[in-house]
């Protein structure tokens, strides 16, 4: 029996505004994670381990930051002569060309290309979550269900449920779907992995376009998923593993805290399911005499002479003698000078914290934009924001 023909569409074109300064100059999927990875590495590695080799990535905002990382798809075995990785930028030239205004709008705009591929199943995934999942298992369940869409679901905290699409389920059948409701009926949320029956879904989008207009299609949860649910054509695939949406600064910071545990929620070096990325060339980390490093992730190319506790250091980070970094995430090239103190903060690429400066403290996470400079002896209070340094 032939394997089903599967197409994965990775949604990587959103503005990512909830990540604030971290997405001012980069696409959300290109945001670094756990030192040496990028957020997009998670869905692409899932594709590789699921044995799926046809992957399309939609891009729109800051596409260069993502294209540089993806290159030809080699780290994820997607550099194929036929098929493999393909980028889908906005385009003009047909009646469906133009700027994408939502995920359902994207499917409608790319409908001709998707129909031409003639897949048995279309897997649509976001790229702002940390998890591992065999997409082929979900596809197999979907193809045997008679559903038009299978939604992968997970449980979320009650006080956070209004950020997600929330479902009510009877067995495996989805009986109700509400998109980011003010008062969620349950804590069962879709985790932004959907398996669609392509032809029926695209036909439905054409009907919704006739009714609403192309801009009215908006996101998958606006009209498409509710319509499929009302007609009894939606199924749930319960996911019990670790999953965390990192689309906000507090969630991004907390996800790094999760991975500092003695037994992290996902083993990124698991020989059976390693997380792949486009590697760079970095020397070994240098821990200098007198340095203290505790409960931290320290990437290659870093130099630590001060004190680092409960933090994640990306390649090229420098923490000078007498400096202290606590419960923080430092992205590539950040430099903390002697006597400075950084607490509960995220420092973007190339940030420089001057001597004896203080950044953050107990309270909300502090965020410093790319290449910003914190003057010597100055203080950025907990929860503060310092935008990217403007270049001359």
From TrEMBL:
Belongs to the bacterial/plant glucose-1-phosphate adenylyltransferase family. InterPro entries: ADP-Glc_PPase (IPR011831), GlmU/GlgC-like_hexapep (IPR056818), NTP_transferase_dom (IPR005835), Nucleotide-diphossugar_trans (IPR029044), Trimer_LpxA-like_sf (IPR011004). SUPFAM superfamilies: Nucleotide-diphospho-sugar transferases, Trimeric LpxA-like enzymes. This is Glucose-1-phosphate adenylyltransferase. Keywords: Glycogen biosynthesis, Nucleotidyltransferase, Transferase. GO terms for molecular function: glucose-1-phosphate adenylyltransferase activity. Residues 293-363 form the Glucose-1-phosphate adenylyltransferase/Bifunctional protein GlmU-like C-terminal hexapeptide domain. Pfam families: Hexapep_GlmU, NTP_transferase. Residues 9-259 form the Nucleotidyl transferase domain. One of its GO terms (biological process) is glycogen biosynthetic process.
């Amino acid at each position: 029996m032939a394997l089903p023909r599967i197409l994965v569409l990775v949604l990587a074109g959103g503005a990512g505004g909830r990540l604030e300064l971290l997405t001012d100059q980069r696409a959300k999927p290109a945001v670094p994670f756990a030192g040496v990875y990028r957020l997009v590495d998670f869905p692409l590695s899932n594709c590789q381990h699921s044995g799926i080799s046809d992957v399309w990535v939609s891009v729109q905002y800051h596409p260069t930051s993502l294209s540089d990382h993806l290159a030809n798809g080699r780290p994820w075995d997607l550099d194929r002569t036929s098929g493999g990785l393909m980028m889908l930028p906005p385009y003009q030239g047909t009646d469906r060309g133009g700027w994408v205004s939502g995920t359902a709008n994207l499917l409608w705009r790319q409908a001709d290309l998707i129909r031409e591929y003639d897949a048995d199943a279309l897997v649509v995934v976001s790229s702002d979550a940390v998890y591992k999942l065999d997409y082929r298992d979900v596809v197999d369940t979907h193809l045997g269900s008679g559903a038009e869409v299978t939604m992968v679901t997970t449980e979320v905290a009650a006080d956070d449920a209004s950020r997600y699409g929330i479902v009510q389920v009877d067995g495996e059948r989805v009986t109700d779907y509400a998109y980011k409701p003010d008062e969620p009926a349950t804590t069962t949320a879709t985790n932004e992995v959907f398996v669609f029956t392509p032809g029926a879904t695209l036909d439905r989008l054409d009907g919704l376009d006739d009714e609403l207009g192309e801009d009215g299609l908006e996101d998958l949860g606006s009209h498409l998923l509710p319509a499929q649910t009302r007609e009894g054509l939606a199924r749930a695939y319960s996911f019990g593993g670790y999953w965390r949406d990192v689309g906000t600064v507090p969630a991004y910071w907390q996800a790094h805290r999760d991975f500092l545990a003695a037994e992290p929620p996902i083993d990124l070096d698991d020989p059976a399911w390693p997380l792949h990325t486009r590697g760079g060339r970095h020397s070994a980390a240098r821990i200098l005499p007198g340095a203290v490093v505790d409960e931290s992730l320290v990437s290659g190319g870093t130099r630590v002479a001060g004190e680092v506790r409960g933090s994640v250091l990306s390649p090229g980070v420098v923490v000078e003698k007498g400096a202290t970094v606590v419960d923080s995430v430092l992205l590539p090239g950040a430099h903390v000078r002697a006597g400075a103190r950084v607490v509960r903060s995220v420092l973007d690429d190339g940030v420089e914290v001057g001597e004896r400066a203080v950044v953050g403290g107990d309270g909300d996470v502090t965020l410093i934009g790319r290449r910003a400079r914190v003057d010597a002896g100055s203080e950025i209070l907990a929860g503060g924001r310092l935008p990217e340094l403007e270049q001359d």
